[in-house]
Amino acid sequence: MNKSEIIDKMADAADISKSAASRALDAFTDSIAIALKEGDTVSLIGFGTFSVKERAARTGRNPQTGATIEIKASKTPSFKAGKALKDAVQ
Question: What are phi and psi of 3, to 5 degrees?
Fold first, then answer.
């Protein structure tokens, strides 16, 4: 399912226009991105938790040359599914 399909489903489920659903989805994703950038965790009870995980610096290998390279420490977004979402999938 892609973004336009999600917008269609949201518009049908909430009985709103597709443009309103698109704005709502954009606001939702932007709000989560801003919260994560500020270091916050976003918890949606029953759905899941968005958070930021830190990866430590490490040594890797270039697969083409086999040369050793240093990989910098980084932050990456993470999602952990909630119980209701896990149960709905099973």
Answer: -60, -45
**Helix (H), strand (E) counts: the chain:** 3, 5
Q: Verify that 55 and 82 share a domain, yes or no.
A: yes
Contact 50, 28 (CB under 8 A): no
Per-residue pLDDT of 51-74, as tens digits, reads: 999 999 999 999 999 999 999 999
**CATH label of the domain that carries residue 49:** 4.10.520.10
* Per-residue confidence band for 89, with pLDDT thresholds at 50, 70 and 90: very high
Specify the pTM.
0.79
Among 87, 53, 46, which residue's Cα sits nearest to residue 73? Answer: 53
Nearest-angstrom CA–CA distance, 59 and 50: 28
Domain range for 27 is 1-38
Contact 54, 73 (CB under 8 A): yes
**Dihedral over Cα of 38, 44, 47, 48: its sign:** positive
